[in-house]
Specification:
alpha/beta; Dimethylsulfoxide Reductase, domain 2; 7-stranded mixed β-sheet; about 30% helix
Length: about 750
């Protein structure tokens, strides 16, 4: 007998509501939930394949523990005994920084990943923290931290109301949006055009998104910051600046960008000066407008400057914090809003990596530096001797996977929390597999802070936890206990500790709705079937829409949310400044010192011209990094690991469509089939991210039949955006030749 259950999709940032059809304990069908308050029935191929992702036979069902050199099935107790026995001696002998933690992208797609890693890091006290952010969006966090005093204060375009939208380095028709949570992003762009609005896409490729645009600018890869700086210069030069309130430094920015005229940047960007002037004038003239940059503008040599300039343009045109522009979302689980006023600000480089002295950003070191932090000895500090990898596959997602592959083999001990035995987890001494998504609850902590409409949704597990499985929340709670010297304690103690600490702090804050109350009395009021639900209830009740534990009787709590299974709409984005600002001045600080100090590097780029071919990445609608290549329904078709190159470049190289092409970069070389297309500009080639499933010792039966190649193997990890530590993945020089020809090593 079949039944239906609701589930928020965890397979990309759109967070669409799904209606699952379930036969027994198996998900047999997924469709969009038409009553979902946010997605209103929208679904993409990934969501439609939820059942296939959920039931992948290669998913691990029990823990694996390395014995006599081989990973073998073990009980949960045996696995956590092994974790405690492997990690604690490293901490006690070499100190906490000798234990590295790698957090992968899927952490922000699960409820457990949102609740427990911060507790893990605090308990370990390690500075050896590496995440997917430094091969993705760290420049945006750093620019937001410097501008607003809060690295997580990221404004998003008001897609439903804007009149003019500029997308730079973004392809939401394939990605479904990123750092901008928007179900049916394609529909929103089409609605923008239908109401007479203008869509501009700046991208070296004529992507599906670019084909929809009124204007497509095929900029030279890596010159995003130059183009944006010239647009800002035009706004100042032509008297088109009407800045957002609560901003300081407008005149200083004008002086700092004075040299970046359209004529000065035109040759470097390969965009005519008159076109740049039109872009700036149209942006200023639009009734409302928003500029939005994403991974293509982050993963370049000037990623932080490009991210900063996106906001500078929104600010100079008065479009930051106004409807139709770019606004700050307000999630239901955000902390109680504090009164507007000066804050602590945001600091960079509070510590540095041991080998190359990379500065930390947002408490993280560059993922590109992980291999050298393991395999290189220095006089300063201990190398990373043990590693905890939570939902992370850096052998594929970080530069120079071959070096990292070898480095992982040299560790004293490694733990991987992962449902698969993949290119990274195959090195672990213990693998702890979480259950499939249908057996897990879901609330989007991170993505609701980036949503284009304020709303809140929560879904309990659609299917009971299978016998022998352990909830991901319990896995991570037990992991925390095992590595912090509390092995064997009740995992519920982790949740209770967080509740006690959070309520204890809340009752001391004058602006809190529970100021002066008894934290024990508040804890007794929490509802929920388990520790994670009690924590969610607490966050909702203390949050901006919460009931304040009775202070606001009509407010939110878990019981109210459970009574609305399709979610609760909290309304459109609204202006919030100056309340979100945490800068030392209490204002938007438009020209922070680290930004000003990095501008000479951008000036030097005015004279730089790439020789030969440069490499960029690309996204596929049916893929999300390296996650889903083991699902047959999500591979094939356009989701292929091919090398895009322009017909003129192909002719010059003597390459025909389908021919194998050798591509060589500073980190190594790969061979991929050519896909000749005029959708990419001359002088540029493109390979997708997340492929390369050809290493031995994995259990990815479908992915290994068509493994593709690892584009990150072309990188040696030395090219980083200096402010954020983000890897440079786009605009990278490469050499290409037919597979039969020998390539000259890059210098």
């Amino acid at each position: 007998m079949s039944r239906t259950a609701l589930r928020i999709c965890p397979l990309c940032e759109a967070t669409c509501g799904l209606t699952l059809t379930i036969e027994g304990t198996r998900v047999t069908h997924a469709r969009g939930d038409r009553d979902d308050v946010f997605s209103k029935g929208f679904i993409c191929p990934k969501g439609a394949s939820f059942g296939a992702v959920d039931a992948d036979p290669d998913r691990l069902r029990t823990p694996l523990v390395r014995r006599d050199g081989e990973l073998r099935e073990a009980t949960w107790d045996e696995a956590f005994d092994a974790v405690a026995a492997g990690i604690r001696p490293v901490v006690e002998r070499y100190g906490p920084h000798s234990v590295g933690v790698v957090l992968g992208n899927p952490n922000v797609h699960t409820m457990a990943g949102g609740l427990y890693p911060p507790v893990l890091l605090a308990g370990l006290g390690t500075r050896s923290v590496f995440t997917a952010s430094t091969v993705d969006q760290m420049p945006k966090h750093v620019s937001s931290g410097l501008l607003y005093g809060d690295a997580n204060a990221i404004p998003v375009p008001d897609l439903d109301h804007t009149d003019h939208l500029i997308l730079i380095g973004a392809n939401p028709l394939e990605s479904n949006g990123s750092l901008c949570t928007a179900p049916d992003f394609p529909g929103k762009l089409k609605a923008l055009k239908a109401r007479g609005g203008t869509l501009v896409v700046i991208d070296p490729r004529r992507t599906r998104t670019a084909k929809l645009a009124d204007r497509h600018i095929a900029v030279r890869p890596g010159t995003d910051a130059l183009l944006l700086a010239a647009m800002a210069q035009v706004l100042h030069d032509e008297g088109l600046v009407e800045p957002t309130p609560h901003v300081q430094g407008v005149d200083e920015v004008a002086e700092a960008l004075r040299e970046f005229t359209p004529e000065a940047v035109a040759e470097a960007c390969d965009v005519e000066a008159d076109v740049i002037r039109v872009l700036a004038r149209e942006l200023a003239a639009a009734p409302t407008a928003a500029v939005y940059g994403r991974i293509g503008s982050c993963t370049v040599p000037h990623g932080t400057l490009a991210s900063w300039l996106v906001d500078v343009l929104n600010i100079l045109t008065g479009n930051l914090d106004r409807p139709g522009g770019a606004l700050f979302p307000q999630a239901a689980t955000d902390r109680t809003p504090r009164p507007a006023g000066p804050g602590r600000g945001f600091a960079l480089g509070r510590w540095h990596s041991r080998v190359s002295r990379h500065p930390e950003a947002k408490g993280e070191l560059p993922l590109s530096a992980l291999a050298e932090e393991i395999d290189t000895a220095t006089e300063e500090g201990e190398p990373v001797r043990a590693l905890l990898a939570v939902a992370a596959n850096p052998v594929l997602s970080a530069p120079d996977g071959d070096r990292l592959d070898k480095a992982l083999d040299s560790l004293d001990f490694m733990v991987s929390v992962d449902p698969y035995l993949n290119e990274t987890s195959r090195h672990a001494d213990v693998v702890l597999p979480p259950p499939p998504p249908s057996q897990s609850p879901h609330h989007d902590f991170a993505f609701n802070t980036l949503a284009v409409r304020n709303q809140v949704r929560y879904t309990r597990p659609a299917v009971p936890l299978e016998p022998g499985r352990m909830a991901e929340t319990e896995i991570l709670a037990r992991l925390i206990l095992a590595v912090t010297g509390m092995h064997g304690a009740d995992p519920g103690a982790v949740d209770q500790m967080v509740i006690d600490q959070t309520l204890g702090k809340a009752v001391r804050e004058p602006h809190s709705p529970v100021h002066g109350r008894d934290p024990g009395e508040l804890a007794a009021q929490l509802t929920g079937d388990n520790g994670p639900e009690r924590r969610l209830d607490m966050m909702l009740r203390l949050g901006p829409y919460g009931d304040g534990f009775g202070a606001r009787p009509d407010g939110l709590g878990l019981e109210k949310l459970l009574a609305h299974p399709h979610g609760i709409d909290l309304g459109p984005l609204r202006p919030r400044l100056p309340q979100p600002l945490k800068t030392g001045s209490g204002q938007v600080e438009l020209l922070p010192g680290p930004i000003a100090d990095d501008l000479p590097r951008l000036r030097a780029a005015l004279a730089e011209r790439p020789e030969g071919l440069v490499l960029i990445g690309r996204r596929h609608l049916r893929s999300n990094n390296s996650w889903m290549h083991n699902v047959p329904a999500l591979t094939g078709g356009s989701n292929r690991c091919t090398l895009h190159l322009h017909p003129e470049d192909a002719e010059r190289l003597g390459v025909r469509d389908g021919d194998p092409v050798r591509v060589k970069g500073a980190g190594g070389e790969v061979t991929a089939p050519a896909e000749v297309t005029d959708a990419i500009r001359r002088g540029v080639v493109s390979l997708p991210h997340g492929w390369g499933h050809d290493r031995p010792g994995t259990r990815l039966s479908h992915a290994s039949t068509d493994p593709g190649v690892n584009v990150n193997q072309l990188l040696d990890g030395r090219m980083l955006d200096p402010l954020s530590g983000n890897a440079v993945l786009n605009g990278v020089p490469v050499e290409c030749a037919p597979a039969a020809e020998k390539l000259v090593p890059l210098t």
